[in-house]
Specification:
The protein is an alpha+beta fold and 414 residues long. Strands 2-3-8-5-7-6 form a six-stranded mixed barrel. The radius of gyration is 33 Å and the shape is elongated.
């Protein structure tokens, strides 16, 4: 591209006395691109932050992977534990018992998932100790029949630390009077808050030995819960472990157990990207209108350039440069402002809340009361490239129309 095309294209982006309106439309187009790019970066960063926060909350009480035995019974779990820990990608393993039960206190009855755990080994795969609101996680000692409840489950039952609840096991006990359910009284020794309603309202923890006695499992457990070095490698690690283990075992990982949830979040992120990209597209249409008016305004200049020997491709390049300048400056400003807001959103949002005396995420409604943000530079790169492409595409038709201008027709009434 020769220097005169670049010089004239840049010169046309500056206002003259008779085309202030065109320059105003150019400024609006530039601001439209800036706002669109900025909104895309901020919204996607917030959605990344929410996804990361929810993933961490789920995996704080769930596990990266699980290995369970046939019919929910795994007998030689100690040997399996030693075998899986030989894998360098596995950093922790803990046995568990998972059963269903009914919890009763006074007139209140609630169904729950009963998870039997070993408090010392469980700390290798989950972080219940930091989630305790009341009591201690290590209070679950064998033979003491203590129970730790999710905060919503405890609230629905109306119990607190020290209260006694009756756990009703679904497996019946045969007596002379017939089959009756097995009942056992447990003392509430703690309440945890995971930050996920699924766990807070339906999960109860007891000692693994107490669970084995209540559900008559002997020395067997339901399976092993695993923690791996990199949570995103969990599917690969599980597949590698499955090769050397019996075929009747069931293997799962967090991406399968919560697949619908994370798939929904990913779909929402993609839809928000498409919707907000329309802002950039609208700004690109403004570039089209800006260049069309500029071409009309500069018809005489185009005709003179053509008579001086400028080729159609040179005329086309002049107006492509003019439109590209709008798109490039708008995109760069949008990238800069979007990155700055995304990196400081945890400071900006509280300032806005204090200014307008409001709260975007009320603590009594949402588990996440602060707006999280996680800037992904790959998102920034994709947004910048797409914005530049849309801006360049918007310059093609007006520039082509300019290159088709006939000098004689344009100068007829000059």
């Amino acid at each position: 591209m020769r220097p005169f095309e670049l010089f004239i294209g840049l010169r046309y982006t500056r206002a003259k006395r008779r085309n202030h309106f065109i320059s105003f439309i150019s400024l609006i187009s530039m601001l439209g691109v800036t706002l669109g790019v900025m909104a895309l970066i901020v919204v996607l960063s917030v959605m990344n932050g929410f996804q990361d926060e929810l993933r961490n909350r789920i995996l704080a009480v769930a596990s990266h992977a699980t290995i369970s035995g046939p019919d929910n019974l795994l007998y030689d779990w100690q040997g399996l534990d030693r075998k899986v820990l030989r894998d360098p990608d596995v950093v922790g393993a803990a046995p568990y018992v998972m059963q269903q039960g009914m919890l009763s206190y006074g007139q209140s009855v609630q169904g729950a998932l009963i998870r039997g755990v070993d408090p010392q080994m469980e700390n290798q795969v989950a972080d219940f100790s930091s989630k305790m609101k009341v009591g201690r996680f290590d209070s679950l000692q064998p033979g003491h029949y203590g129970i730790v409840l999710g905060i919503e489950l405890a609230r629905n039952l109306g119990v607190g630390v020290g209260d006694k609840v009756v756990l009703i096991a679904p497996q019946g006990q045969v007596t002379l009077a017939g089959v009756v359910p097995r009942l056992k009284t447990f003392t509430v020794t703690g309440v945890f808050e995971a930050g996920m309603y699924e766990f807070d309202s339906g999960l109860a923890l007891i000692n693994i030995r107490d669970a084995q006695v209540l559900y008559r499992m002997g020395s067997a457990v339901s399976g092993l819960r695993l923690k791996v070095k990199d949570m995103f490698d969990a599917p690969r690690v599980v597949q590698e472990l499955a090769v050397g283990l019996p075929a009747d075992m069931y293997f799962s990982d967090w991406t399968k157990e919560h697949a619908n949830f994370f798939r929904a979040v990913q779909i929402e992120k993609r839809m928000m990207f498409i919707i907000l990209l329309l802002i950039v597209a609208v700004a690109s249409f403004n570039i089209v209108s800006t260049l069309v008016m500029a071409v009309t305004d500069k018809e005489a200049d185009i005709a003179i350039l053509r008579t001086l020997g400028a080729a159609p491709r040179s005329i086309m390049a002049i107006f492509m440069i003019q439109g590209a300048v709008i798109g490039v400056i708008g995109t760069l400003l949008g990238l800069l402002s979007g990155v700055l807001i995304a990196l400081n959103i945890e400071t900006i949002v509280p300032a806005i809340e204090r200014l307008f005396h409001t709260q975007f995420l009320a603590k009594d409604v949402y588990y996440i009361s602060e707006l999280p943000s996680k800037l992904e530079w790959s998102d920034v790169g994709v947004i910048g490239i797409v914005s530049l492409l849309l801006s360049l595409l918007a310059t093609l038709y007006p520039s082509w129309r300019a290159s088709r201008t006939h000098p004689a027709e344009a100068l007829r009434y000059e």
